[in-house]
């Protein structure tokens, strides 16, 4: 059993505010777990690594992506499973390089996220750890059920009984988490983000079935009514939450339901969409952007627990820089203090993903997934954009 001690670091451990100077931590090379941490003189070890007073954080987590999508090539028609898989492999590598060491995929065609999660330990390609939903649950004609829909794309569900069956199938096929399309969305032709698509009864069956299997439920929910129904049904996170109201924010704080706003999904379309993607998408995104940022400010003030996610794969919201943009928007558009953003990216995200026992903070007994950065994030969250940051998974340097 050999050990490596990293010393002379400015350490944010994921649990305590700020960076602690002159920190060290020891990693067991075989298990990839931390065996000791401290400050001051580092203990003797098989290997010593001087981090030269650089900034160390736990690996960051992106709680909402679409691995099988390409943010810069949207009008490609229906992709084969091979194409979706190739995109997924590239996207995973880009995520890891950007500093994301754990990712939650919320809907992929052909269940490619589940298959890549299971293939990684066998084939050893570079990837963050993956929490996978497989195909999402959609209502007929709703978000995720396009006119040329095929069953490879999502489960189409129209009653509590159908939901029970589909959720059980989802778990049978390897899902860790169930994704519900509770409302319409910006990117679907026929519906509006304001439409509440699933009934309370349908969603309540989904949460019952998921929770009975130690799984979680993430609800794509944008309009006020649909958000309210999803909360009542007992979902574990609200994704997007564009028209979240104060009563719902209060409920989320009280019941510790996470909000994953994915600001960059909307901002990407507003900034770059004109003339590049269908007009209805640009119009929907622009119409809703202002209300979105206003309501997210309200949610921060109300003390709603946040976890970071980008919706990567939506137009102009990619796997390389989209996460940097999301952190920037949280701080500079929504007014979340950087310290809170750091928790949303680590401790909170690990809790939402159900992996907080082993990930999300740098403590003895947890995995050594960490990043080494030149700049202090508390001074400028955009220091996270550093292209050559060091990325470690289980104590092994990946980039
Ligand atoms: Zn999404």
From TrEMBL:
Every Amidohydrolase-related domain range: 55-386
Family annotation (InterPro entries): Amidohydro-rel, Metal-dep_hydrolase_composite, Metal_Hydrolase, Metallo-dep_Hydrolase, OTAase-like
Name of the protein: Amidohydrolase
Highest taxon above the source species: Bacteria
The UniProt record lists the keyword Transmembrane: no
SUPFAM superfamilies: Composite domain of metallo-dependent hydrolases, Metallo-dependent hydrolases
Molecular function (Gene Ontology), one example: hydrolase activity, acting on carbon-nitrogen (but not peptide) bonds
Residue segments, region Disordered: 136-155
Transmembrane segments: none
Pfam families linked to this entry: Amidohydro_1 (PF01979)
Gene3D superfamilies: Metal-dependent hydrolases, Urease, subunit C, domain 1
Keywords of this entry: Hydrolase
């Amino acid at each position: 059993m050999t050990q490596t001690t990293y010393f002379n670091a400015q350490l944010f451990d994921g649990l305590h505010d700020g960076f602690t100077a002159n920190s060290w931590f020891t990693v067991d090379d075989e298990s990839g777990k931390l065996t000791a941490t401290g400050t001051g003189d580092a203990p003797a070890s098989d290997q010593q690594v001087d981090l030269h007073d650089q900034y160390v954080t736990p690996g960051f987590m992106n709680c909402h992506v679409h691995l099988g999508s390409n943010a810069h090539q949207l009008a490609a028609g229906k992709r084969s499973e091979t194409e979706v898989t190739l995109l997924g492999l590239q996207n995973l590598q880009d995520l890891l390089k950007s500093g994301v060491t754990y990712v939650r995929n919320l809907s992929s065609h052909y269940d490619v996220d589940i298959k890549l999660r299971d293939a990684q330990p066998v084939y050893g390609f570079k990837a963050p750890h993956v929490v996978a939903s497989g195909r999402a649950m959609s209502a007929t004609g709703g978000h995720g059920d396009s006119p040329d829909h095929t069953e490879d794309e999502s489960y189409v569900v129209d009653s509590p009984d159908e939901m029970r069956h589909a959720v059980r199938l989802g778990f049978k096929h390897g899902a860790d988490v169930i994704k519900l399309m509770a409302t319409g969305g910006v990117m679907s032709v026929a519906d509006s983000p304001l439409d509440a698509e699933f009934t309370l009864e349908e969603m309540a069956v989904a949460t019952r079935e998921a929770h009975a299997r130690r799984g979680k439920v993430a609800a794509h929910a944008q309009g006020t009514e649909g958000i309210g129904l999803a909360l009542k049904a007992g979902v574990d996170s609200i994704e997007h939450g564009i028209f979240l109201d104060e009563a719902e924010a209060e409920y989320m704080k009280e019941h510790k339901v996470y909000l994953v706003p994915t600001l960059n999904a909307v901002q990407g379309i507003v900034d770059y969409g004109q003339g590049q993607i269908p007009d209805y998408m640009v119009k929907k995104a622009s119409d809703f952007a202002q209300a979105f940022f206003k309501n997210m400010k309200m949610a921060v003030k109300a003390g709603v627990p946040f976890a970071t996610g980008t919706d990567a794969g939506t137009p102009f919201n990619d796997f390389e820089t989209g996460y940097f943009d999301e952190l920037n928007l949280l701080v500079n558009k929504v007014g979340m203090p950087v310290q809170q953003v750091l928790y949303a990216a680590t401790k909170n995200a690990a809790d939402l993903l159900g992996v907080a026992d082993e990930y999300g903070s740098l403590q003895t007994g947890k995995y050594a997934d960490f990043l080494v950065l030149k700049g202090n994030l508390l001074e400028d969250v955009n220091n996270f954009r550093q292209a050559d940051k060091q990325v470690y998974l289980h104590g092994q340097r990946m980039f």
